[in-house]
Amino acid sequence: MQPRPLSEPVVPPDSPNVQEAMQYLHYRNMFPELLRFRNSGLLKCFSWIEDEVRLHMEQWEAKMAVQSILRLIQRVYEWFQTWGQAPAFMKHARGEYIALFRARWLACLPPSFTLGLRLFLRTTLPSLPANAQLFHMLEQLGISERFDKTFIDVMFDEVEQRIMDSCPGMWREPRLESIRTSARELEERWLTMVYGHMFVRTQNNDWFRNAMMMVTGRLDHFISRTLVELRTSEIFDIIVDFPDTLPAIQDLRLCMARSQYRPDFIEGLREVVNQRILQPAADTDDIITFYVSLIRCLRIIDSQGVILHKVAPPIRKYLRDRPDAVRCIVRRMTDENESFMQETEQPVPIQQVHEPFDDYTDPHWLPEPVDAGADFRTTRPMDIVSTLVSIYDTQDLFIKELQHLLAARLLAVRNSPLDDEIGSVEKLKQRFGEAPLQVCAVMLKDMNDSRRTNTHLHGETPHPLYTTVISRLFWPTIQPVPLKMPGQFKELQDTFEAEFHKFKPDKNLRWVPQLGAVSVKLDLEDRTVEVEATPIQAGVIELFSEQDTWNVEDLMAKLGGIDRVLVQSALDFWIGEGVIKDEGSVYRLLEQAEAPTGAPPRPRPVVVEEAPPVDEKEKQQAEQMKIYWQFIQGMLTNLSALPIDRIQGMLKFAPGYDRSVQELAVFLESARREGLLVFTNGMWKLAKK
Amino acid sequence: MDTLHTNSMSLREPALKSAQEPSSNKQAAGSVTKRLGNELMGLMMSSSPGISAFPKSDANLFDWVGTIEGVAGTVYEDLKYKISIHFPSNYPFVAPVIRFETPCYHPNVDLHGNICLDILKDKWSAVYSVTTILLSLQSLLGEPNNDSPLNTEAADLWSNQEEFKEQVLRHYQPIAADD
């Protein structure tokens, strides 16, 4: 009756003499005694199993080979079976035996067993059907019951593994559905295998189904969470590659239907934005591209815009501080190929963008999501252009920039039709309204008028001089360079001017001689050179037709006293063309081409592209200050002397005044130094003329 | 009971009315303020020589102070006149009230500074603005309308420019703070 070591031969319990002994005991009604005897023996001998466990677990901890776990289980099962053999009449005490054995042996397992079991079970996954016997053992030994969490974890591990194998970087095809299917299939196989016996035994299939459902639910959560985590870590590239990554975004949308992942997603997104986008090194254009993609992605993931509302403000604020952001946006708005300009949505007039919006007739109306912030407002459905424009509080900036851009483009256009420009202005009118774009309309009209004027003055035949007459008030301020064109250019200019005055006597004509382009054909002794040049370059070479050598100072004087830099760069241009040679103090015209000397030809100097005739920010501010100065003059003329805080207060009548008192003080002080103001007894007044 | 009831009704009604009125007034005041703001901007940007005006304080856009300089070549050359401009709350449908604060010896200006100018009276139109009024006043100085004088003595004297100028200078008081 006492347990023995496995190595000793077992006395078969049904052998005749054992039967006889049992009969005797049965007769004497000594079963309780016998049972107690057996149990105490079991407890006494359990140290053997403890040794066995220790041995195998040491192996496991040393080598981390899952084989140790398998051997341990097989071994213990052997003990379990052997000691469980009992005479037939004791079968009803088997339950007690199992409980006792399980309790003892599970108690002596070290904590590291959990991990071992988990890893070991993973290895059984590929060949589940072949392991039926093993799961029977696990169930018998009570492992299935005791370590049920581990069994579920194994499944999660496997699913996670599958996600990690198949998903990272795979953005161009939907993954979620296939993962869900494969996970469900795995789950079914696994649970049936692991717990199948148990439920067959308990015959309680409803309970089984409920348990299955709970596990299925958890598994689904787990898939969503893992995928959201993965995609969050990849979100930057996904957004950058949008719309190619649309499937990945769709997956995210499905996963994010449960809003508990949203805080992490938002957090991750913000971090990425901070790290990758809001950096001085990031190009403004790239930031805008990213922002546009971000809007598109988030529209799919969260159509109500709560996530966008939480992520976008830093980007918008950052863009607002970037001086060239307006220019980038405007350039995109006028770019025919820009995708967001081709969106088919009805353009929203921009005035309405800042108004709160609630459409009570909308049948698809949804309440605000729970994670919407207090300042979240359902905004009018906006297209991307409106969203970009609404970064700024006013649209004036855009109109200004548009004006500059249009000016630069129009001045660069030569005789080709202006259809593109007209088209983009028309398109923008739908958004900004007719009135603000009046300026642009006038600019376009100037172009057409110029064409008509030229045709009128020169007839249909091509004329060497083509002029663009622009209305000063409607174009950005262009600072004329005091360039005086020499020789034939001057004649052309003068003739045109005379004719123009005849044609339009009420108009004043002021040249902006540095703009434009000249096709130059130089007839030299041995060759002709044909190039496109700027007026200054043309002027310089024209002077060389008068005499062969010039020094820079004379050229500057002859051209009306323009800057040395301009003359120098024009000379460099001609040197690059091989027409002029630098001879130290003077430049000489090369009537005969010089054979290339040993030294490589001087690299054609980089012509510093002149920025479009755009006012710098400071200039604009000075311009504004001029307006304020008018107001200050007005108030001081009529109210004689005022302290600075009264002036500051009164300046609120000036539109858009936003200077601080300190800034005003600086301004007033500089006006005083110029002798325009007097400061006495804490009061400012106008200086007497 | 009955009388008391009607009493309370009649008491309530005017109270209700007075509660409504300010709100509509306020709206009107808003649009007037806007118009005046625009006119101020227009005036500041027009830079017409010799005329200027500005609100007295930043709290009230309805009271302005103006300055008019006499045009060169007239008897008022080099003289500066202060005027006060008060805009009614239903401006621009009613002309602003303008008077000379600096004593002005002129056929169409009385001793209290009141002005007789058709566009400020029956010829007023909403298209006029502060700028146009100031320009009219400036030209009125040099070209008085002697047919409808407020100051008949001045009207009679107009033909004698030298003596007229003497009278102008005798009445004239330079603007105090300008010294």
UniProtKB/TrEMBL annotation, chain A:
- Which GO terms of the molecular function aspect are on file? ubiquitin protein ligase binding
Q: Name one GO cellular component term.
A: anaphase-promoting complex
GO biological process terms on file: cell division; metaphase/anaphase transition of mitotic cell cycle; protein K11-linked ubiquitination; ubiquitin-dependent protein catabolic process
Query: Keyword Amino-acid biosynthesis: yes or no?
Result: no
Q: State the SUPFAM superfamilies in the record.
A: Cullin homology domain, Winged helix' DNA-binding domain
Where does the Cullin family profile domain start and stop, copy by copy? 352-574
Q: Which UniProt keywords apply?
A: Cell cycle, Cell division, Mitosis, Ubl conjugation pathway
Fetch the InterPro entries from UniProt. ANAPC2 (IPR044554), ANAPC2_C (IPR014786), Cullin-like_AB (IPR059120), Cullin_homology (IPR016158), Cullin_homology_sf (IPR036317), TPR_ANAPC2 (IPR057975), WH-like_DNA-bd_sf (IPR036388), WH_DNA-bd_sf (IPR036390)
Family, according to the entry, reads as follows:
Belongs to the cullin family.
Full protein name: Anaphase-promoting complex subunit 2
Automatic annotation (TrEMBL), chain B:
Catalytic residues (UniProt): 116
The residues covered by the UBC core domain are 31-177
Q: Which GO terms describe its molecular function?
A: ATP binding; transferase activity
Pfam families (alphabetical): UQ_con (PF00179)
User: Which InterPro entries does the entry link to?
Assistant: Ub_conjugating_enzyme (IPR050113), UBC (IPR000608), UBQ-conjugating_AS (IPR023313), UBQ-conjugating_enzyme/RWD (IPR016135)
| Disordered: region residues | 1-31
Keyword presence, ATP-binding:
yes
Provide this UniProt record's keywords sorted from A to Z.
ATP-binding, Nucleotide-binding, Transferase, Ubl conjugation pathway
Q: Biased composition, Polar residues: where in the chain?
A: 1-10, 20-30
Superkingdom as given in the UniProt entry: Eukaryota
As for family, the record states: Belongs to the ubiquitin-conjugating enzyme family.
PANTHER family xref list:
UBIQUITIN-CONJUGATING ENZYME E2
Q: What is this protein called?
A: Ubiquitin-conjugating enzyme E2
Q: Which organism is it from?
A: Calocera cornea HHB12733
